[in-house]
Amino acid sequence: MRVAVAATAGAVAAAIALLLTLGESSSPWLIVLAWIAAIAAAGSLIRFGNLIFPCSLAALGLLALLEVLEGAVPRSLTPLIGGALLAAGELGYWSFELRAVRQTSMGVIRRGAVILGLVLLGASISGVAVAVFDRLTAGSS
Amino acid sequence: MTTYRSRRLLPYALLICSAAILSIGLARPDPIFIAAPFAAVLIAAIVLSRTHPDLSWRTSVSRDRILEGEEIEIVSEVASHSGGFEISFLVDVPQGMELDLAPTSLLIRRGSKASLRGRMTCRRWGSRMVGGGVIQARDMVSAFVHEIAVEPTVAVRAYPRPEQLRSLLRPRSLASRFGGYVSRAAGVGLEFADVRPFVQGDQQRHINCKATARQRRLHVNLFHPERSADLVLVLDAFSDVVAGSVSSLDMAVRAITAAALQCLRRRDRVGLLSIGGTVRWLLPGTGIRQLYRIVDSLMSTQLVLNYAWPDANAIPERALPSGAVIVALSPLADRRIASMLLDLHRRGHDVSIVEIAAEVLLPEPVNEKEQLTSRLWTLHREAIRASYRQMGLPVAKWDPGKALQVAFAELDRFRRSSRRVQS
C-alpha cells in the first residue's frame, strides 16, 4: 500500500512537471528543473528523504509560479497547480506514515477520501480567489 | 499522553507565509493563488487541535507458553470515550522475537472498542515481557498524533525446541528401580531369561509347565527385570560461541531438553548440572514436573563473566548419584569446564562429552595471521580431544545443523569399544 500511495504522489508531481512542459515556456531550463524537482520528489518517497520531499515540492511550486508570472501558464490554472501540489504533499506524507502503520482497506478509502476532500476544498478556495481577483481587476480596468 | 504535530504542518505554513511575502514583494497575487490550497489543511488542523482522545486499553496474548519458532497473537483492545480517531498500535519487539504482522490501524468511534491484532514469532527460547509499545491516535486529517506509551505486561515463556533424538547412551549400571531398560540379571520382570528348578519361595505363577512335565520336577521361569538409569546433563555456562543466529549455548539447551525428554519417556531419573561462574544443580528426578523444572532452570541460565575456578568439590554428592551417566554439552572453549569434567572422570563417574563444534561457528579467517591462529586453535582442540579419548573419556563432535543422534551414536560406539579394552 505504501508503494502505491508513494507512486501516486510521484505521478502527481510528474503531472505538474508535464503541465509546465506543455506550457509556452520561454526557458527550457525551467522545464528541466521542473522535471528534476519531480524526480527528486519521487526519489525522496522511495528513499525516505523526509527533508528532500518538501524542498522538491517547494521548488516545483516556485517553478510553476515563475511560469505563471512569465505568462507561459495562464493564471486560471493556478488553483489546479496548487491543488496538485497539495495532493502530492498529502499523498507523500501519508506514504511516510504508512512506513510504521498498516491500514485496513476501509482506512485507506477513508484517508483517500479525506485527501480528495482537502484538495477539492483547497483548489476551490484558490479558484474563488482567482475569480474574485479577475472580477476586481476587470472592473477596475 | 504525548501529542505531536504532523511533520507536514510546518512546511505548509512556511509555504503559505513565503507566498504571502512574495505576493507583497512582487505586487502580484499569483503566489497566494498557488499556495492557497495548503490553507485548507491548516484550517482543518486548527479545528481539530482542540480534540483529544480519551482511551483505555488492555493488552493480551493468545498463548503465554510457546515453543521456539511458534507464533503468538498480540491483541490490544482499545476503548475510546471521545470522538473518532484512527488508532494504531506500534508493538515493541523484544529481543529474540520477530514481528510477523504489525497490527492494522482502525477507526474508533466515541464509546466503541477496537481490537488491534498483530502476530509475533519467537526465534529464541527465554522468558520475555511482551505487549509493550505505543498506541497512536490520529485525527481525521492526521494533523496531530497522540501517543500513549504502553508498558509490557504479559510474560511469555518460550521453551527451547528439542533436537531430534531417538536414543541415549546405555548406562553401564542400572539402579534398582523400575524403568525402561532390561537388566541382564535374572529376577522379576517381563522378558523371559531362563528356566531353573523350583526352590522354596518361588511363585506358583512362574512354574513352567512344559519343563516341569519333561523333567518330572517343578521348574520355574526366570525373567530379566526392567530397571531404570540415572542421567545427569551438564550445561557449560562458562562460554557461549555465537555466529549469527547460531549459538553454542542455544544448541546445548535444545540438546539437553531433547535428552531430558527422551530420558523421562523411559522413566529414568534425570538431573541437571549447570557449571559456570556459579554451579547450579537440580537433583535427579522423574516425571513431567522434572522436565518443566529442567527447562525452567535452563531458561534462567545466564553467562556471567568471572574468574572463579570451581572444581568437582563444588558439586554436591546427591547431584551425581553413583552409576549415573553424566553427559556434558560444551563447546570446550573454556579450560575450566574441561578440567572439571576430567576431574569427574578421574573420580570414577561415567562422563561423556558432546562437544559443540565451536570452530564451525567462528567466521572464516580473512588473512594469513587469522588462518594460522585458526589452525593452531583447531590443532589444540584436536589434541585435547585425543587426550580425553586416551584417558577413556568419550568425546563426540556435534556440528551445527547435523543431527544430535549422530553425536550420541558416536559416544555409544566409543563407550562399547572402550569397555572391551577394559575387560
What this model shows, in words?
Chain A is mainly α. Chain A is 82% helix and 1% strand. The longest helix of chain A is centred in the C-terminal third of the chain and has 36 residues, at 105-140. Chain B is α+β, with helices and mostly antiparallel strands and 423 residues long. Chain B is 31% helix and 32% strand. A six-stranded mixed β-sheet of chain B has the order 21-20-17-22-23-24, with helices on both faces. Chain B has a five-stranded antiparallel β-sheet with strand order 1-11-10-5-7, with no helix packed on it. In chain B, strand 10 and strand 11 form a beta hairpin. The longest helix of chain B is centred in the C-terminal third of the chain and has 23 residues, at 368-390. Classes of the chains: A mainly alpha (141), B alpha+beta (423). The A-B interface holds A 50, 54, 57-58, 61, 64-65, 68-69, 75, 78-79, 81-83, 85-86, 89-90, 93-94, 96-97, 100-104, 106-107, 110-111, 114, 118-119, 121-123, 125-126, 129-130, 133 and B 6-8, 11-12, 15, 18, 22, 26, 28-41, 44, 86, 88, 90, 102-107, 136, 140-142.
Protein traits:
heterodimer; A: 141 residues; mainly alpha; 5 helices; 1% strand; B: 423 residues; alpha+beta; Immunoglobulin-like; 4 domains; six-stranded mixed sheet; 9 helices; elongated
Uncertain runs of chain A with pLDDT below 50, 5 residues or more? none
Chain pair with largest interface? A-B, 43 and 37 residues
How many DSSP-defined strands of chain A? 1
CATH architecture of the largest domain in chain B: 3-Layer(aba) Sandwich
Q: Alpha-carbon distance between the termini of chain A?
A: 52 Å
Can you lay out the helices and strands and say which pair or pack?
The complex is a heterodimer of chains A (141) and B (423).
Chain A: H1 2-22, H2 28-46, H3 52-70, H4 78-97, E1 102-103, H5 105-140
Chain B: E1 2-5, H1 9-26, H2 30-48, E2 55-61, E3 65-67, E4 71-80, E5 85-91, E6 97-101, E7 104-108, E8 113-122, E9 126-130, E10 133-138, E11 144-150, E12 154-159, E13 181-182, E14 191-197, H3 209-215, E15 219-224, E16 226-227, E17 230-236, E18 242-243, E19 246-247, H4 248-265, E20 269-275, E21 279-285, H5 288-299, E22 325-330, H6 335-346, E23 350-356, H7 358-361, H8 368-390, E24 395-398, H9 404-422
Parallel strand pairs in B: 3-12, 17-20, 17-22, 22-23, 23-24
Antiparallel strand pairs in B: 1-11, 2-4, 4-8, 5-7, 5-10, 6-8, 9-12, 10-11, 13-16, 14-15, 18-19, 20-21
Helix pairs in contact in B: 1-2, 4-5
